[in-house]
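[Meeting: bench + compute handoff]

Bench side (C.D.) handed over the final construct sequence. Compute side (W.E.) agreed to return the predicted structure before the next meeting so the bench team could plan truncations. Sequence as handed over:
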Amino acid sequence: MTVPLLEEEACADLLHRVLRPSARSSLVLVVEGAAGVGKSHLVRRLGAARPPGAELSCLSCARPVDDGVRARWVRSVTDARSPALAVVEDVHAADPLTTAALRRLVRDLPIGAVLVMTCRPDELPVPGLLLGEPLDCPSRVLLARCRVGPLDKEATGRLAGEVLGLPCEQEAADRLCELTGGIAQVVVETLVQLASSTRQSGSLTVEDTARLGPPVRLAEAALSRTQAVAAEHRPLIRAAAVLAEPASEAELVAVSGLEPATGRAALLAALSVSAIDEQGPDRYGFGIPLAAHAVAAALPGPLRRDLHARAAHVLRQRQDTPWPSVAGHLRAAGRQRGRCGAVERALTAHLRGGRPKEAALLLGQTLADGAMTPADRFRLAAGHLRHIAAALPPEAARTLLDTLADEEALPPQIRGHASVLRGLFLCTPAPLDRDDWLRLEQIVHSLPGDTELVARVTSGMSMPHWPGISLTEHRHWLEQADAAAAVTSDPVTRAAVAANRVSLLVTLQDAAVRRTLDAAPPEDELPEQARHRVRGLCNAADASVWLGRYDDARDLLDSAQALADRRQAGHLTGHTIRSSTLLLRWFTGDWAGLAALAEHLAAESADVPLLCDEAHVVLASLALARGAWPEAEQWLDRCGGAGRQLVPLSMVTSTVRIRLALAREDHAAACAEASAAWSRLRGKAIWAWAAEVAPWAVTAAVRAGRASVAQRMATEFTVGVTPPHSSLVAAAQRWCRAALAEARHDLVGAADGYRACADLYAAVPRPYSAVLATEAAAVCALAVDASDRAAIQQLTDAAGYLAGLGAAWDASRVRARVRPLVTVPSSRPGRPAYHDCLSPREHEVAHLAGQGLTNREIATTLHLSPRTVEHHVANAMRKLSVSSRRQLHS
C-alpha cells in the first residue's frame, strides 16, 4: 500500500475535513522524524488548530503505559460522541501491549476520528513497520504520513535569532546548521548553552560558532549509543567521530585501524543502534557533527591524535580533497609536516566557496599557533591575508587587521604585514584624512622590495576623490602604481591597480581609460580578478556621474551588474551599484520612490560610511526641495564632515547647505559654506567638480553684495577646467556668467544667460537644474517687463513641473512669483468663499508649516508678511481641526 507523504499544511487541511460533523471517514496520520526535529511541536500546532468541539486525548509511549490508563484512553477514542483527535507520541518505544491496542484501534477507528502517531523511524523494533506488522485499515480509514525533517540554513538563522534575541550572520547560520544537523532541539539547546557561558556581542558570528560545544542531552545520547556497541567495534564509531563528516566504509575502516572484515561488522553494529547514520550511497557518519565532537572529546588524548593523523592521511586520498578538514586534522594531530600547504589550500577553498569569514577564522587560528614555524606563519600571512581582507565586509576586514597588527604575541613580521594592509584598507571604502595619508606614504617607503603591496597601496592613493590631497599628488602616485604593477607577476595585483587607476583617468577624461575598460579578460581569470574588474567598472561609472556623463555611467553600471551577476563579485558591489544609481536618479529627475530607496540603502550600508553619506545627501536634497528644511538639516548632520567626505560628494552637500541658507536669507552662512567648498576645490584642483556648487556659490556671493568674490570664483572655474568641457560644466559656467550679469543689473543679458543655461542643463539631462535656471531667467525678464507673457507662462509651467516632481517648496515659491502677475477671471465680484475648505494660499502655507518651516521662512518663500502667514496657519489649523503645526503635514 502506498501511503501519501503530506506537507504540514496538507495535513491540517485533511485533519479538518475528517473532524467535521459531516465526515464519512476517519484518518490515521503518522508523523515521523529523528529525535528533536519538532514532531511534538507539529502535533501541538495541529491540535491547537482542530475545529471547535473536537475532543483531544493524548498518550505517550516514552514510558511503560499502565493497563488501566491504556484501556481508558482507547475507550475515550472509540466511544467519543463528537469528532475526536487522538495523539500517541513515541510509538517506536511502545510496549507490546500498547502496540497491540493501537493495531486494534486502527481497525476500529470510528468515523470522524483522527489518530496521530509520532515515531522515530530509525528506532522502530521492526524497521519500516510502525506497529510491528502492516497496518490493517478498513476502507473508511484514510492513511497518510508527514515527515518532519531538519531545518534549512535560513530557518536555522531565524530560530537562532529568536533564541538569542540577536541577528544571526548568514555564515554563522550556515555553520550552526551544519554543526547541529538542523535539528531544532539541538539548535536551541546549543545556543542556550552558548549564551550561558559567554557574553554575546551584537550578533551571532562565525567566531561564536567556533566555540559551540555539544549540549548535555546530545552528548549523553551519543556516548550511550557508542557504549551499546561491543568494545571491539567501537573504534569505527570513534573514527567517524574524529572525521566528523560523511565518509565511505573504506575510509572509516582505514581511520579506525580495524581489519576489513571486523570493520564491516563494526559498521553494521553501529548502524543497528543508530550510533552513526547512513547519509547517502556508501556514506556514513554522525548526522549531528556536535554529537561527533562529544564522542571525540571523550577519547584519551594520544588515541585522539592518532585518529586525527590517520583522518588527514585518508582525506588527502580523495579526488576532491576537503582541505579545510585536512588542515584541521593535522592541527589536532600536532603534525606540522604538510600543514602549511594544507592551510593554504583550505584558505583558497574557503575564498572560492564564498566563505571569507571561515578563511579569516582559520588564518587567525593558524597564525596564533606557536607550534608552527615563524617562516610558515609569515608565508601564510603574506600570501593570503590581503585576499581574505578584500573579500570580507569592510568592518570585519578592519577588525581582522587591527587584531593581527596589535597582537604582541605574533612575530614582528606578521604584525608589520598586517599594519601595512591596515593602511591600505584606510582608503577603502571610507575616505582618509591627512594623517592617514601620511601613514600611507610611510608604508610605501617601508616596502621597497614588495612590489605587489606597493602597487596596491599607491594605486589606492591615486584615486582622486580623497579630501585634502592635490591632483598633482594623485598623478604622482598613479605613476608609482603603474611602475610597480609593470614588474609584478601577480594577476590579481594588476587587476586591482587597473580598477583603481580608472577613477583618475575618467576624471581627467584621459583616452587611455578605454583600453583598460575594454580589455578582454584572460581565459583563466581568477574570481579575485573578476571582482576587481567589476570594481573598475563601478569606479568608472562613479567618476562619470560626477562629470555629468550620465549615459556613460548607466552603460558602465549595466556592465558592472552583468559581470557581478556572472562572477558573484564581492560584498560591496551591489551597494556601490545601487548608490551610483541613486545619485543618477536624483540628478536626472527620476524622483518617484527615490526617498524610500535612499533610506533603504542607508540602512543596508550602515557599515559603509561613504555609501551612507551618498544616501543621506540625496535624502537632504529631496527634503530641501519639498520644504522639509529641519529634516534636510538632520540628514546633513548624519553625514561625515566635509573633511571626511569624498570631494565631489561634499560639493553636493555644500550646495544643499548654501541653498538652505539663501532660502532663509542668511547670506553670511551661505557665503561661508561657499568659501569652504571653494577652498576644497582649490586644494584638489579638479575644477570639473565645481559644476555642482559653482552656480550657488557665485549666487550666494552676488546676493551678499560680494561681486568681486563672485567674479573671482567664476574666473577660477572657467580657467581651471581643462577642455573638452562636459555639458554640465558648460551649463554651470553659463549660470555663473548670468548671475554676474544680474549683479551688474544687466537683466536682459542675465535672462538670456539663464535661458541658455536651462537649455544646456536640459541636454545633460539635469531637468531640476534646468527648471531652476528657467525660473531665474523669467524673474530677470519680468524685472524688465512685468507683462512679459512668455516669462509668466514659463513660471507657470515651471511650477507645474516642480509640483509633479515632488519639489513642493520650489513649486510654492514659483507660484508665489506668478500669482500677482496673473488676473484670474471671477464669475462674481469679491474673493471666492472657501468656507471650511482651505484656499490655495492656505494650502501652500499649511504644507510648508507642516514640513517644519517657520512663519518667517514661509513668508520669505511666498513673498508674504509673517503676520499674513500667521493668519493663514491659524485658519488652516482651525479648518482641519488640528492642534499643532506638525499635524498640518500631508
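W.E. noted at the follow-up: The first helix runs from residue 8 to 19. C.D. will use this when planning the next construct.
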